Amino acid sequence: MAEALVVHNLSKRFGGLRAVQGLSFSVDEGETVALIGPNGAGKTTSFNLITGHHRPDAGSITAFGRELVGLRPHDICAHGLARTFQVARPFGRMTVLANVMTGAFLRNKKMDVARTRAREAIDQVGLSAKEHVPARDLTTIDQRRLEMARALATEPRVLLLDEVMAGLNPAEIDQAVALVGKLSKLGLTIVIVEHVMRAIMAVARHIVVLDHGQKIAEGDPDTVVANEEVVRAYLGTGYVHAPVGGGSAC
Amino acid sequence: MMRPRASVLWLGVLVAVAAVLPLVSGAFAIDIFIRVLLFAFIGVAWNLMGGYAKQLSLGHAAYFGLGAYTSTLLEINHGVSPWIGMFAGGLVAALASLPIGALCFRLRGPYFAIATIATAQVLMLLFLKFRDFAWGAEGTTLPNLGDAPLMMQFDGKAPYYYIALALLASGLGITRLIERSWMGYYLVAVGEDEDAAEAVGVNATRIKRHVYLISAFLTGLAGTFYVQYIYFIDPNTAFSFNVSVEAALVSIVGGIGTLWGPVLGTVLLEATSAMLQSWLGSLGGVQLTLYSLILIAVILWRPAGLLGVLTEAWDRIVHARAARVREVPLDG
């Protein structure tokens, strides 16, 4: 299958801190890839580099054959890469519908077209009942849903999800996993940063493990969780995988 | 939320009152009304930028002054009617907003505000220094042509009133068009969170540049009108810091990022100011102190502006059932 996203030798320093060092990985079209690793491993920084919010010191990022380094975030979004933020950043003063319409205007500036497109995205994430609620009044999980809907409204080909499941209860995690699975089935390429291992095991076909800004392992989920270095650096020696819906691992 | 028919009715009443007002008022009252309309218009222009997109400009005097000087120079040096000069002034202001915006938009928050103050001050200094170009610090009076409608000069005050009213109406119309289109959504999104807006495809720099252009154009029109009304121009009047502050203040007090906020804010501030002046003006300075205290109180306790207070109250009375907070904008 064709490659949707190729990250090659990516590096970023913040002063003396090497946030990302020589990171390379690629994501095939339609694939769901997870970035995991301890806090500070460089996952969110990688997202910020890919989506243009930070500029890398070295390396290249290509999506569907086009170099993204140097492009502004809105250009990258227009090229088909949409993201959510680790801490949800809704437009608080606007309603859910207005938030998502803002995303939909990227592809069509007409009010009614954008409204229809926004309603579809809101429906996909299950927020239809709260369409007219100001975003600042939403609960945490609903704000995350809103961010996903807003990203979906831009009609992306690659969706980058930054810890969309943090702080959710087990039932909510199951819902979120189902949603990610549904989006994947629709043909979206998904890159997901997540700490909830059982969710990752359920959605990701390929896992990239980061530690101190470097890739320490990658491969299919079962290989990765059996990797000694991954266990040492991140999972912990007590880690036993339990399937989604079946238990309370993590 | 007001139903469409109700709001059309209210608008009709408002327009009717505004149209009749000068016919039943004395010259002193009309003068106050004209100031209210003019500053409400400048506030509306400022609000597009400062209210919806939350780019706190404190340098709109730059565009006011450029508008004022452009039409005056055209009239005195080339005999061009201020009706044409007004639009030339708007264009000059709009053009000037491009380099000024390119410089200032690199900065965010308070730094942006400070940079805009500086641009207006620099322009004022340029007009003070270069005497040969535009009369320097002395300024100039406009030639009195008597009743010359084609040169935007009139005997009575009523025509000025209607011009200011038309300006305000067009400013409100433009605001409403923007508010109800993708531009309004983009502006509010940028005002709420610029990075998040960029992430969903909003070209924040471009939308800010565009709205700054419109805002500067409208403020330039106001500058021309003001000179035509007071028959005098000098750098201190045209680029007065007070104009910049007043533009921001009326919007903040009335409710930033709302269609009617600047209008309400101007009516209240001008009325308060005029009343305090007439009651306490003889006590030298007391009225200004009181005025400032009122401003501080509003900003401390009602940062959403008075329109926010009124709409909340309206919602509570009329729509107690629907727990929807009416906020302009934005709902789909």
Overview of the structural elements:
Chain A has helices at 43-50, 73-78, 96-104, 111-125, 140-153, 170-185, 197-203, 221-226, 228-235; strands at 3-14, 17-28, 32-36, 58-63, 66-67, 81-83, 158-162, 189-193, 206-211, 214-219. In chain A, strand 1 (3-14) and strand 2 (17-28) form a beta hairpin. The longest helix of chain A is centred in the last third of the chain and has 16 residues, at 170-185. Chain A folds into two domains: 1-80 and 156-250, Rossmann fold (3-Layer(aba) Sandwich), CATH 3.40.50.300; 90-155. By secondary structure, chain A is α/β, with parallel strands linked by helices. Chain B has 332 residues and is mainly α. Chain B has helices at residues 4-20, 27-52, 61-78, 82-104, 110-129, 131-134, 158-179, 182-192, 194-199, 204-230, 235-238, 241-254, 261-280, 286-301, 306-318, and strands at 140-141, 232-233. Chain B is globular and about 50 Å long. Chains A and B meet through helix 2, helix 3, helix 4 and helix 5 of A and helix 8 and helix 9 of B.
Features:
heterodimer, A: 250 residues, alpha/beta, Rossmann fold, 9 helices, disordered C terminus, B: 332 residues, mainly alpha, 15 helices, 73% helix
Q: In summary, what is this structure?
A:
The complex is a heterodimer of chains A (250) and B (332). With 250 residues, chain A is α/β, with parallel strands linked by helices.
Q: Number of helix segments of chain A?
A: 9
Summing up helix and strand content along with how strands pair, one would put the structural category of chain B as mainly alpha
Unreliable residue stretches of chain A: 246-250
Radius of gyration of chain B: 20 Å
Overall pLDDT confidence of chain B:
85
Order of helices and strands of chain A: EEEHEEHEHHHEHEHEEHH
Physical arrangement of strands within the biggest beta sheet of chain B:
1-2
Number of domains of chain A: 2
Task: Tell me the major beta sheet of chain B.
Answer: 2 strands, antiparallel
